[in-house]
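Subject: design request, 281 residues
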C-alpha cells in the first residue's frame, strides 16, 4: 500500500496539474457520487493527510480519495490518447484544458463539503509529514507537537508490539511497512518490543526518526522520482545487513518466526537479527 511519501508527492502533482484552471471534464465513477458535477470548478488546494488525498474546490467541496493497495493517480496531457480514461479501472477523471488526471483503481472516494473533511479522517493520528509534527527548533518546555501526541497514542496499548503500533494509522498517519521497518532499523529496535518496554522518550524519538526518513524520501522524490531512496532493510530478505552483514530476516507483525498472512491482516516486517536483537540478548 502506498505510504505517506507517495501520497504527499501525488497531492503535489495533482495540485500542479489542476490548480488555477477550471475543470472542463469531471467524471466520478463511484457509487453515490457518480452524478456529481465538478465541471467549471477550480481546484484551490491539493493536500495529503497520511494515506488520504483531499482535493479542495472553489465551490466549498472536497474530493477525498484513498489508493488502498493498488490505486494510483496519473497525469496526462488533455486530448491525448492516454488521457481518454475509458478503461474500467479508471474511477475518476479530472481535466483542465491542459492536463487530465486519472484515478486508477482507487480504493475509496467521497465528495463532501470542505468543512466536513474531519468526518472522514477524524480517527487518524497526527500526519507524520505535517509541518507541525516536529516542534520548531528552540521551542522551550516539553514538546507539544504531533510527535508528542503520536507518542502518547503509541503508549496507549503497552502490550502491543511496536511494529504493529507504528502501522496503526490511529497512532500516526502515513507510515506503512517500508518506513516502519526503516525506522526500527535506524533505532536498532527489535520490532516486537512491547510498546510499554520502550524507555522514557523513546517513543517520540522513534517517531521523529520516522518523520525524518519519510520526509527525506519526499525530498529525494521531488528531485529524482519515487523509489530513489536506498532502503537499508525493507525488501532485503536474506541480503546482508548494511551494518553488520547478518542476513536480513522476514517476519510478520504477529511474530518474528511467522510469514505474513494477508488474510489474517498480518503485515510484513523486515529486520536484522543482530542489529535489532531483543533487549537482553
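Subject: RE: design request

Done. Sequence follows.
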Amino acid at each position: 500500500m502506498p505510504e505517506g511519501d507517495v501520497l504527499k508527492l501525488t497531492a503535489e502533482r495533482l495540485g500542479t496539474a489542476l490548480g488555477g484552471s477550471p475543470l472542463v471534464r469531471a467524471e466520478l465513477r463511484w457509487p453515490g457520487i457518480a452524478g456529481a458535477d465538478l465541471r467549471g470548478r477550480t481546484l484551490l488546494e491539493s493536500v495529503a493527510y497520511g494515506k488520504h488525498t483531499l482535493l479542495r474546490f472553489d465551490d466549498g467541496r472536497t474530493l477525498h480519495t484513498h489508493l488502498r493497495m493498488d490505486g494510483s493517480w496519473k497525469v496526462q496531457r488533455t486530448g491525448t490518447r492516454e488521457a481518454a480514461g475509458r478503461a474500467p479501472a479508471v474511477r475518476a477523471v479530472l481535466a483542465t484544458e491542459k492536463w487530465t488526471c486519472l484515478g486508477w483503481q482507487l480504493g475509496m472516494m467521497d465528495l463532501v463539503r470542505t468543512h466536513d473533511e474531519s468526518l472522514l479522517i477524524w480517527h487518524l493520528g497526527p500526519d507524520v509529514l505535517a509541518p507541525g509534527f516536529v516542534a520548531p527548533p528552540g521551542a522551550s518546555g516539553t514538546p507539544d507537537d504531533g510527535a508528542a501526541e503520536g507518542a502518547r497514542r503509541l503508549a496507549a496499548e503497552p502490550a502491543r508490539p511496536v511494529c504493529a503500533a507504528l502501522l496503526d494509522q490511529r497512532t500516526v498517519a502515513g507510515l506503512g511497512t517500508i518506513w516502519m521497518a526503516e525506522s526500527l532499523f535506524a533505532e536498532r529496535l527489535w520490532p516486537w518490543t512491547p510498546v510499554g518496554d520502550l524507555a522514557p522518550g523513546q517513543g517520540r524519538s522513534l517517531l521523529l526518526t520516522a518523520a525524518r526518513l519519510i520526509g527525506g524520501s519526499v525530498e529525494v522524490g521531488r528531485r529524482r522520482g519515487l523509489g530513489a531512496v536506498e532502503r537499508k532493510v525493507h525488501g532485503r530478505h536474506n541480503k546482508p545487513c548494511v551494518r553488520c552483514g547478518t542476513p536480513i530476516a522476514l517476519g510478520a507483525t504477529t511474530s518474528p518466526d511467522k510469514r505474513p498472512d494477508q488474510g489474517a491482516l498480518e503485515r510484513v516486517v523486515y529486520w536484522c537479527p543482530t542489529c535489532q536483537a531483543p533487549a537482553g540478548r
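The mean pLDDT is 93.
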